[in-house]
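#struct-pred
JK: can someone run the complex with iron/sulfur cluster? inputs below
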Amino acid sequence: MSESTAPSGVTPGARPVNPLLADEPGARRLLLGNEAIVRGALEAGVNLVACYPGTPSSEVPDTFRRIGGGGRYRLEYSVNEKVAMEVGAGSALAGAMTLVTMKHVGVNVAADPLLTMTYTGLPGGLVLLSADDPGCHASQNEQDNRTYARFAGMPCFEPATAQEAKDMTRDALLLARELEQPVLLRTTTRVNHLRGAVEFGPLGQPAPIVPFERNPRRFVPVPAVARVRHAELVRHLGVAREKAEHSPWNTVRGDGRFGVIASGISRAYLSDALHETGWGGRVKVLDLGMTWPLPEELLTDFLSECDAVLVLEELEPLLENDVRALVQRRGLPVAVSGKGGALTIYGEYSTQSVTQALADLLGETARLPMACDPETALPVRPPNLCPGCSHRALYYAVRKVFGDDAVYSSDIGCYTLGLLPPLRMADFLFCMGSSVSAGSGFATASGKPTLAFIGDSTFFHSGITGLVNAVFNKHDLIVVVLDNGTTAMTGHQPNPGVIQDVLGNACVHLDIEAVVRGCGVADVVKVRPFNVKSTMKALAEMKERSGVRVIIAEEPCVLYARRTLKKPRNQVAYVAEQSPSVADCLEHLACPAFFRDDTGIHVDENLCGGCMVCLQVADTIKARKRSDA
Amino acid sequence: MSNAARIRIYLTGVGGQGTLTATTLLARTALDQGLEVTSGEIHGMAQRGGVVESTILLGGWMSPKIGHGEADLILGFEPLETLRGMTHLAAGGSVLSNTEPLPPVGVSTGREAYPDMARIRAKVEGCAAHSWFLPCRTLGLQAGSVQAGNSVLLGAACATGLLPFGPDALEAAIRTHLAPKLMDMNLRAVELGVRAVTSAS
Ligand code: SF4
Ligand code: SF4
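RT: done, structure tokens with the ligand placed:
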């Protein structure tokens, strides 16, 4: 099943405008949280979008790309988050209303420019979307980026529904332009990936460009300027605090001496818990949607009317600590509770954990639903490299040549999945680009042969700096650039190395080999991983040399080749005869297209990616034409 | 807008099966019927063959999440995942499941054993008030493609009477939201699902 892009009621074939671009105020559509963010940005009149893709943020730029926009905005896939942030800052300085999108860990990369652009301010208005991932659904950590609102000094919005995702994005952009200050739109995976009805507002025209006025005493933060600007930032936050006091996103409902202060997706769990338990009439709720700066007067009024309050927020107890400080500062006779018990600092909240916390607050017993017992010892279904993935072929060759003698420094992408047995091609990993530099450090301290695996998109993101460093500091390291021509992990967004010109003429292909040589690496070899023998030969030769060596393993991602480049592989493998080499192939290559039954080991033709690597591993596996080809 | 029934539906399957597209179709069906809908999906690195879970909550829920013991209805697009997902079923809840396995890699390589259908049925029948099992892949192929198997399951779910709308609403949504070239096949699939449920009861 694939969906048509035709909106309801429009005859397909007439090339209708995408519903997200239609000016139909009052229309109600089912949108993904991330699509709602796009609509909100369009309603505000966004002029420029810069991003680095990363789950759970990726559908925002991908939607902007898919709908085209008809000239309403410019979209850029930047090479990393710092660059996206800086492109966005420059754009907003030049007066464009700007949205910059990334996942939570990307904000760490972008933090340097971010923490100074709040000093200078940005006249066109800039909103940073930080898509956090409590529960680590697709991330290496679950850091709480509300911290950045406090750290950098940014007003912060936290939607909990698709409708709010749209409306708060719009309001955040409008506020950013009004205050001339960067604003944080902080979401979490549940919000980015929920779907709900969204009622559209008017579309309007793209925002007018605010003319740039040279003012080095504002925009060039040398120390003398920076000192003054920091004071300015504090003043701006005072203005923003006033906005938060009266924001329609911060509301009080209900009655009683028990209060609950909730933010983000916790508000959804609270709402459902109150409905389920019927305790709605016994608590007073302060919903915080604009969560920074804190509306202290609103909070004080709320706290003064309560004997006890419960603070609901996933991850760090930021709000809770602020509330405790406020209670102390104002001498309010109210008991504050928050983290503890079911409400953990790690992981996500749920309707049940919130129900438990409500029960504790009210002195009730929570009646949690009965569930049937979990089944034990079920076969797991871990994510795996696709059948025919070139990374598997390369990893197979590396394991044959280096085995357990070498140490494998991994990076972020599909290829991280090589950590699973039998390939076991990841010994450590920190963040985007760390394979090269952490690999350098590890090799120096351990004296062990070290291989760093890095994908093409990650190489451009932050592998190049590590490579220059390795050359300059004379490290001893083999860097394997897994060049599959796309950003496979997050859904095939373009990067500077893309094979296909997806963005039209604006997109330029950069040659990885030329970049590597330009960084000063003399020992560079290109291999095609689907040719196992020659790949192993190149690896074996490199093993004998020292210094910074780079192997570029070039092979398009099979999924990308099939879906985007429309290059299906018409040959499939089949087991012509059962033999020890077939068993060996299953054990060491472990392509998921293989299966075992009573009659032996076979290849599932529907799954086979046609890489022909198994033919080179087992002599009784042969190729034939796909039966439907 | 009707808030008559508050129903939580938990859907589970395997990356690549198209369960998220099916989830969106069912959510749109509900919205087209004027119901309040919240839907969610979790698919960390699922493109690479992992488990894909999604949810549809009808009748005014704000959270898109369904915890243990909370689902009024489970739609299992793959039998092993139906079994794994059973902890989500609420007391008195019902289950519809595909019966045709997609073996995970540990099973295909012979390291792990796939639970047999009898065990899956016994568990489901032990926990659920009502349950239906359908060979979705086979019926999908009968309708025109393996992917249409998802519409078989949706059609069956609409025919159980457990949802606040019937198969006609799903058919209308298919006509509205699916590309014309996929329409007939999916309509046939819905019909096969409906027939499987009505002939079983
Ligand atoms: S999406 Fe592409 S790169 Fe990722 S595992 Fe599949 S084939 Fe490999
Ligand atoms: S079965 Fe062989 S040819 Fe097919 S994808 Fe797997 S390794 Fe490649």
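RT: quick notes.
Chain B has one domain: 7-200.
The radius of gyration of chain B is 16 Å.
JK: thanks, will look after standup
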